[in-house]
Amino acid sequence: MIDLDAYLARIGYAGPRAPSVETLRALHRAHFTSVPFENLDVVLKRPIRLDPASLQQKIVAERRGGYCFESNALFMHGLLAMGFAATPLAARVLYERSDPALPPRSHMLLMVDLEEGLYLADAAFGGQTPPQPLSLAVGVEQATTHEPYRLRRTEDGELDLQALMAGQWGTLYRFTLHPQLPVDFEHANWFTSTHPDSFFVNNLIAAMPGEGCRYTLFNREFRTRWPDGLVETEAIETAADLASVLQRRFALIFSEPELSRLFR
Known about the structure:
By secondary structure, the protein is an alpha+beta fold. The protein has helices spanning 4-10, 21-34, 40-43, 52-61, 68-81, 182-194, 239-250, 256-263; strands at residues 37-38, 85-93, 105-114, 117-121, 134-135, 149-153, 159-165, 168-175, 205-209, 214-218, 221-225, 231-235.
């Protein structure tokens, strides 16, 4: 279990705690706008631990972020502590993928069972994180505070989450409603954080929502992306530039030796 009061203080949530769709939406927004998506510990070659105590220490006490296995896991523990029926699921990431072969399941998301029905809750999909919970209703375009989203059923009976980006629907990931066990994520987390060919091992990544936009850091480029497809870019030319962007847009502070390693 986690320290629920400390977690809610970390994300700035002081609202009702009774499980409801309104509470879920408010919690999702609070987490989404407070906990940055980032893989900086992977780049620093630090172990990524998924037990509740480690998640509490890193994201709550140290006010860091994390990638899906960390951030969505903490979100799930918070929901469970408040009495929500939350089930962890796994997805194959298809976003911006040109290879037609299906990749392994490397993304964690949540299914939340409420009186109003089943909801997809995902507060940690990097630069395209859904800004709010989505109904698990297939074929329905769902407006959000950022882009519209929808679910599409595949020929094999699985579900594709899609987003309308710059006027075109793009598939983010594919998943089923089959519950996952902690060991499933331990295996995927180990591969994602240590394999030499892993996208997260080879790139520096951070993402946070802005007011009507999305901020992303990808290696030595900081991007501000707007719903109409406009992207503003800023080059990261020094370790000091990196320090400034991390603190200004992601509320992350690192020591000079850490910044030097991250910049390299």
